[in-house]
Amino acid sequence: MKLIIRLLLNALAVIILSYVLPGVDVDTYQTAIIVALVISVLNILVKPILIILTLPITILTLGLFLLVINAIIILTAAHFISGFQVSGVLWAIIFSLLLSFLQSILHSVLKEDK
Fold this sequence. Notes:
Blueprint: H1 2-20, E1 24-26, H2 29-45, H3 47-53, H4 55-60, H5 65-80, E2 84-86, H6 89-107
Antiparallel strand pairs: 1-2
Helix pairs in contact: 1-2, 1-6, 2-5, 5-6
Organism: Flagellimonas algicola
Keywords: Membrane, Transmembrane, Transmembrane helix
Transmembrane segments: 32-55, 62-82, 88-110
């Protein structure tokens, strides 16, 4: 149940950012759910491989190259999903930064008090 709520919160974050950022476009709410799902799958499967392959440049840039890796993940999702468009690498970097920030705010709602 918590996984579905997290997925819907991620989709909500994608929708909010598509309204705020002019370089990002999501057609429908169903597309936003698919975007959230695809980005989650890409983060689980592809991102660790990219991090390992680019470890020297990531160390050299003190971790800033991870922004480029996040942009690659966003652009890959935009390539596979027809109703999701990102205008360029800069918009993908901004989208990934704001998505992470918005997800942390929305997911803090789910935290249970211990």
